[in-house]
Pyruvate, phosphate dikinase
Amino acid sequence: HKYVYDFAEGNKELKDLLGGKGANLAEMTNLGLPVPPGFTITTEACKAYLATGREPDGLAAQIEAHLESLEREMGRRLGDPQDPLLVSVRSGAKFSMPGMMETVLNVGLNDRSVVGLSAQAGGNDRFAWDSYRRLIQMFGKTVCDVPGEEFEHALEEAKRAKGTKNDLDLDADDLRGLVDGYKKIFAEHTGREFPQEPREQLDLAIRAVFESWNAERAVVYRRQERIPADLGTAVNVVSMVFGNLGPDSGTGVAFTRDPASGAQGIYGDYLANAQGEDVVAGIRNTVPLQELEQLDKKSYDELLGFMARLEEHYKDLCDIEFTIERGKLWMLQTRVGKRTAAAAFVIAGQLVDEGLIDPDEALHRVNGAQLAQLMFPRFRLDHEFRPVAKGIGASPGAASGKVVFTSARAVELAAEGESVILVRRETNPDDLNGMIASKGILTSRGGKTSHAAVVARGMGKTCVSGADELDVNIPAKKFTVAGQTVNEGDIVSIDGTTGKVYLGEVPVMPSEVVQYFEGSLDPEHVDNALVRAVHRIMTHADAKRRLAVRTNADTGADAARARRFGAEGIGLCRTEHMFLGDRRELVERLILARTDDERQSALAALLPLQREDFVEIFREMDGLPVTVRLIDPPLHEFLPPLEQLAVNVAVAQERGEDVAKEEALLAAVRRMHEENPMLGLRGVRLGLVIPGLFAMQVRAIAEAAVAVTRDGAVAKPEIMVPLVGAVQELETVRAEAEKIIAEVVADSGVEVLIGTMIEVPRAALTAGEIAEAAQFFSFGTNDLTQMAWGFSRDDVEGAFFWRYLELGIFGISPFESIDRDGVGRLVRIAAEEGRAARPELKLGVCGEHGGDPDSVHFFHEVGLDYVSCSPFRVPVARLEAGRAVV
Ligand code: PEP
Ligand code: MG
């Protein structure tokens, strides 16, 4: 088994094995860019370690061999007392997990090699001892679980003794003293001396990186980001280069385009005289990358050249970490960079213009989740609020909420349903749960690449970082800004695009992308790179997709909006929604009717109301198909709840009032009470039991279609019967419906289709028979999921799904994204057998899954004709249907 790869042996396609960092270091090495030499230990080795608790056979010898060849190449031996080679040991999983796992720098330093390092650095004792104390600190914390604060206190203490607040004022002697202190802390907490043997340091550091895969924060992050739990991390062993050797050294990050807006230009942060992790941690404030031109023009020009090459090579936005060691530029990392949703669209459009990618590839570069994000509202432009501070717009969006200062409090208040803004000086991986719970994140320190910024962008959360006018006092639970004090629970608003911070709740406005979909922004004439990019990509998706996209809408207004968003018909009009409000009383009359006459009169009163609803919808959907579903839920849903009614009756009786009517109602409610209403008298069963109910609805639909047609519009009604499990149910309803339709439609030219939902597992399994009686199927994946799993759709998500997600029984709720193997299999069977029986059978889906990106791909694969989703999801479904093709 080959567990170790030299950088020169890998390439960017080997991310599964070498992790993202290792694969890209290999790629840069092979491109001839200046990467410090090193090697990568594979994810396979990590998985073997995690499975057995020990290093797999052969790993130690392979590390030895690669270390020797690294030593030969560098002309130095690891930890050599005279002239030491030092290495960093870095995690690197297939998917980037910023700050989640461990890194140890300066491995190879000990009491003797620290002297050799000083000599290497031209007699720079201060640097050598600072490097050594950093090793003990990082090694102690990450490898041996020594509490990090212990080291921080000792450092603070050393600075206090020196009368300074700045690390850089500590001289070599101070740092030597600090190393002694650190070693004592180490020994106290671990019961052993700090290991002096370089190879032992290396092995322990590698093991710690393996183990960090299962650190709690990494587990939480993976769950949030839906990264599989069994990938393992690779480990990169890289020769150290130093950005902290003096003012001609430094470290930074660079982006080949703006990861927030997608704009072309030079973006990044630089920190002189600092070591790599200082930038990402946001511990000191960085300067914009452009300032490097004044500090070190040669390195700056070289870096710009490398950035251009990497973009050409990866054909995408790259982000880069680099270090300059005494005027020599080293490339420490690159990858195809994370970006905001807006930047994803803008960059994809630009890359097509530049001829780097084709329009199909542009579709791969964006996704429906990003589009959905861009449809969120933003702060209105005309509000009267004045910003009290301006930080860095680190992750766009508009968020308002109550201020909290700790992760725990954020989780607590969010659980009570509050919107919260997590305010910190800077965040670190321990804040992850609080960040997930918050609407937005506000920090007083750190740049666009700080932990807060990177993680928030990844989550699609609004974030303002580095708002340094804020004086944040965590223990006192307050911050002050512009002479005002803001306490926990006060409301602030943050704008993740402009970086502005407001006190109070700023009003919001719809997004430009929504305005474009609404038709109020013309993409050809608007000076808005995002709107133009979205337009372009949507146009391409529409040209490519095979799936049609319809909408679930029950009102004319929803239908009209969905149509502007690109809906090509209605896939589900839930008629029960038309039985609410003022009409409830009519429904009550229907339910309570004791004679045929009473029932007929109640139905006759409902008929014109239903007809009006359908007229409005057919008008809005002129020329497009409209699937109207006959009433589905149990009728008692339209009656008052049993307990309340019983109490009312008892109270009224007590007062001696006339309660005859209430008693009749109560008796009806009692009669209709069901233990499992979702599996009871609903859907087609109601139609078969309550005479005249479906007939009234069918008549209203047909009459509305005829009326609209007479006015010159084109109505294409499709009547859908819910909850069918046996073909006989459908046949019975259909026979009655066809008679009414024939009578109403006569020679008006209106054509009415009759079909069924497939939402009971038995319907899916007998789809061949059912298709004989149905002109179309629409999959009701909500009920199909409920009945296939036996999960009550109204109860389980809050009750126990968290545990199922935690255990990995599924990675996402099956009510949110289609369960391909189970529920999906039922869909596949029904589609195949239905089509075999009736080749022209129209197939669609109208459950919530119709607007879920992954599910849309599945429905494309199984050959449905359309998906139907809520109006706001229509653009998302159009995009994903296009992406499913390319
Ligand atoms: C379904 O079950 O998927 C469906 C669309 O119907 P409803 O959600 O109204 O039960
Ligand atoms: Mg249903």
Notes: The first helix runs from residue 15 to 30. Residues 73 and 575 are 76 Å apart (CA to CA). The chain has a mean pLDDT of 93.
